[in-house]
Design a protein that fits this description.
The protein is mostly helical. About 65% of the residues lie in helices and about 0% in strands.
């Protein structure tokens, strides 16, 4: 494990990245403030996310390659990996209770439920 480097009043560069991201700073802005490359900002964020995720509570979901490719520019715009973007999209849909609105399949769901009754 590497040595923690106090940065901008935070205990480590990782803590600084997380704190600055919470202030809605872009990857470029965070990199400039800390004095590191943008790819280092992304790496520190991903490392922090991995260390806080409980592996036993995760499952693998297969996503078609063409969908991963289509999401690539959206992930790049945010300075994150495509898999992280997918996790964030799913989290947002669930947290905001908008799955039905996003899928827009109410008629199909209603027909299914009526057939099961």
């Amino acid at each position: 494990m590497s040595v923690r480097k106090p940065t901008l009043g935070y205990a480590s560069r990782t803590d600084a990245v997380i704190g600055l991201r919470a202030q809605n700073l872009s990857t470029k802005e965070i990199a400039a403030r800390i004095g590191i490359e943008q790819r280092t900002v992304v790496a520190l964020e991903l490392s922090a996310a991995r260390s806080h995720r409980r592996v036993q509570s995760c499952r693998t979901v297969l996503v078609p390659v063409d969908i991963l490719a289509a999401l690539g520019p959206h992930a790049a715009k945010r300075g994150i990996a495509v898999n992280e973007l997918i996790r964030r999209l799913i989290d947002a849909c669930v947290d905001d209770k908008i799955v039905d609105a996003v899928l827009d399949d109410a008629d199909e769901v209603r027909a299914y439920l009526e057939g099961a009754a």
